Structure prediction request, 391 residues.
Amino acid sequence: MAPLDTHAICLLVFLFLVISHHVTSCYTAIFSFGDSLADTGNSVAIDGHSANDAATKLPYGETYFGRPTGRFSDGRLIIDFIAQAMGLPFVRPYLAGGSEEEFRHGVNFAVAGATAMNNSFFREQGIDVTWTPYSLDVQIEWFKQLLHSNPSISDPSVLSNALFLVGEIGGNDYNHPFFQHEPFDKIRKLVPSVIEAISSAITALVKLGAKNLVVPGNFPIGCVPLYLRQFQSKNVEDYDQKTGCIKWLNEFSVYHNRLLQDELDHLNGVYHNATITYADYYNAAMRIFDSPKQFAQPIAGFTTPLTGCCRGCGESLCEDPSRYVSWDGLHLTEAAYKTIADGLLQGPARVPSLNQTCSVRQQSSASPNSLKFFTSIDSSRWFDVWNVRES
Prediction:
């Protein structure tokens, strides 16, 4: 086997790094695309979208920021923990505006309610569109506009040293029709189109200069409180006996993730100069639902994994959000996001310090010992990495 691509090595190092505020990052910027699971303020910067008003009011943001920030949680999101692990500031929302200097460490294009498919697609399917028009293709256009207006960001050396988070996206493509009670078979048929939209976005980013891309899969929707209420059943066979999650809904998420992984495998075979990595959000979350009490927050773990902390958000609030997985019935708590981010960053193995390992990027290839380390990692629990290939 030929030596690993140096970008692949750095991406692997980052993904398995223990979260720390004092590391020297392999990457100098983060560019993020997605929906409310990654939105750090874009939705509240959009006039006329009253549906997103919740994130502008307490108790949203209370745990970490002490105020609402436009994040759909009580505190930080996965993207925030990733930025902190990389020693970077929180990623600035694109629609909040900013100078070239303020965008120097990256930009977040994610918008709450966003879909992978554009709204005209859903109208053609006879689905009532009531959500934001800022789909994934619109976010990619925003990125192009940013590159056009900020020459220093469009510099190839900047883009090659940036991390691109393409998602989580696709969840709302299913949330909206599920909650409108569209037939299951009709929703399942949407999945290949959603995967194609994600693939097109990845292709566009690679052609624009992206070299290091992480593409998360979807979360297990059968464990989401809103889904548990909407699709409650008297048939005990519908539920996982260990977790209490709805099996057929989780199987749907697995189906989406399997098709996504197949497509990423294909893209890695096409774009040999880019590293495209699958982030296994599904299994990272399922670890919590399988054994909620083993994740100390700081002592008792998640004692209430299938109930939202904030019911109506303002009407009834739990005493301790860190004991809950779900914040408002659809989005997660900071504690849950941190647990998932810890798992994604640490992985199943510890690694040498980033200061030591990132020096590999300055070399033309990895040493035999580095190659042996990376190929020995059991990544099936967290990430599927396809960029280990022959040159």
Notes: The radius of gyration is 20 Å. The mean pLDDT is 83. The CA atoms of residues 24 and 354 lie 6 Å apart. The longest helix spans residues 247-270.
